[in-house]
Write a structure and sequence with these properties.
The chain is mainly α and about 90 residues long. The chain has five helices and no strands.
Length: about 90
C-alpha cells in the first residue's frame, strides 16, 4: 500500500497538470520541459519542491501566475486537507 505522502505527491502532480492542461497543451509541455531542463524535476517532484514550480510559473506567466496558483489552490483545498499540502500551497504562493 502506498504511503499517505506518496498519495499526496501524486495528487498534487495531477492537480498541477490538470490546471496547466486546462490552459493548453503547449503550456503544460513547456512547464514540464522547464522543470526537467532547469531542475531535473517532474510534476510529482513539485510536491517537495514547490519553489521551483513557482519560479517557472512566474517566469512564463508573469502576473497571470497568481491565477494559476489560485486554480491549483482551489483544486487542492476541495479535495485535501493536509498540513503538507497547505505548506506546498504557501510556498507556491510566495
Amino acid at each position: 500500500m502506498k504511503s499517505f505522502d506518496t498519495i499526496n505527491k501524486n495528487f498534487v502532480a495531477f492537480v498541477i497538470e490538470k490546471v496547466l492542461l486546462d490552459i493548453n497543451n503547449d503550456m503544460h509541455s513547456l512547464v514540464k520541459k522547464r522543470l526537467m531542463d532547469d531542475y531535473h524535476l517532474t510534476f510529482s517532484d513539485c510536491y517537495g519542491n514547490p519553489e521551483y514550480l513557482s519560479l517557472i510559473l512566474k517566469d512564463l506567466f508573469g502576473d497571470s501566475y497568481a491565477t494559476i496558483v489560485d486554480n491549483i489552490r482551489t483544486m487542492l483545498k476541495e479535495h485535501a486537507t493536509n498540513t503538507n499540502i497547505d505548506k506546498f500551497i504557501q510556498i507556491l504562493s510566495k
